[in-house]
Amino acid sequence: MRSPARILVVDDVADNVEILRMRLTALGYDVVTASDGEEALARVPELLPDLILLDIMMPEVDGLEVVRRLKADGALPFIPVILVTARASQADVVAGLDAGGDDYLTKPI
Question: Which of 8, 53, 80, 83 could be joined to 49 by an S-S link, Cβ 3.0–4.6 Å?
Fold first, then answer.
């Protein structure tokens, strides 16, 4: 892991991205962002973040599909993915973890 750790924040709501970016930057992390699932999938191989904070509810490619694709890509090193979403039911948590998420946080965090 590099120092400071690089965190990729992925969310289609700009305010959510900015809140996480400001908080994590203040704690000394190198924060990079993506505004949707497609952008995240394109940026991960070039950035190789140490952690991904990934929203689930996004247009086009949702967070569950993003984490499935990332975890299925054998060319990528292990990158922990924390799903960050407003969905809070037990079924949603199970679906997120089954898709490959390493942890699950509900908004607001």
Answer: 8
